[in-house]
Amino acid sequence: MYRELDKLISAYVTEDSWYDDGCIIASEILIEFSPKDWEELSIQVHTKPLEWQKKLAYCMDSNCNMHEMIILLSLLPTEDDELFEICIDTLRSFTAPESKEKILKDPSILLRVTDMLSKVSIPVKKVLEDFLIKIHS
């Protein structure tokens, strides 16, 4: 299944096509992942181009499982603000107590989110604020 996901994310498609169809298909593939697929993805994700990582992060909330969360958290140290914002946007769906606890254990995440609040557009600011509200609720 990992190869199928990689092929889908690596394929050239228009941005509209990705957000209309590609991310839905990718989410469906992720549902079928085996432990071996998750292991392969967690190893390979950091070798992939930035755009590939963004597409992956965007579609990783269908299960809100710990495998997805670990990969999203591993992408947060990025220097790319857009990838960081996508990861935070996706992590808003991870509302289980153990997910919140894992995020709260890393103060650098909350610090970066808070620091970004004054530097981003209004829509991104609302996403970041919503993330903080959900994490602290």
Task: Give a quick set of tags describing it.
Leucine-rich Repeat Variant, Immunity protein 30 domain-containing protein
Q: What is the number of strand segments?
A: 0
**Coarse shape:** globular
CATH C-level label: Mainly Alpha
**Biggest sheet character:** none
Number of H- or I-type helical stretches: 9
User: Alpha-carbon distance between the termini?
Assistant: 35 Å
Quick check: average pLDDT?
Answer: 92
Strand fraction = under 5%
Task: Label the structural class.
Answer: mainly alpha
Protein name: Immunity protein 30 domain-containing protein
Task: Write structural notes for this entry.
The protein is 72% helix and 0% strand. It has 9 helices and no strands. It has a single domain (2-136), classed as Leucine-rich Repeat Variant (Alpha Horseshoe), CATH 1.25.10. With 137 residues, the protein is an all-alpha fold. The termini are far apart. The protein has helices spanning 2-10, 15-31, 35-44, 50-58, 66-75, 81-91, 97-104, 107-116, 122-136. The radius of gyration is 15 Å and the shape is globular.
Task: Give a quick precis of the structure.
The protein has helices spanning 2-10, 15-31, 35-44, 50-58, 66-75, 81-91, 97-104, 107-116, 122-136. The chain is an all-alpha fold. The radius of gyration is 15 Å and the shape is globular.
List the helices and strands and how they pair.
Elements: H1 2-10, H2 15-31, H3 35-44, H4 50-58, H5 66-75, H6 81-91, H7 97-104, H8 107-116, H9 122-136
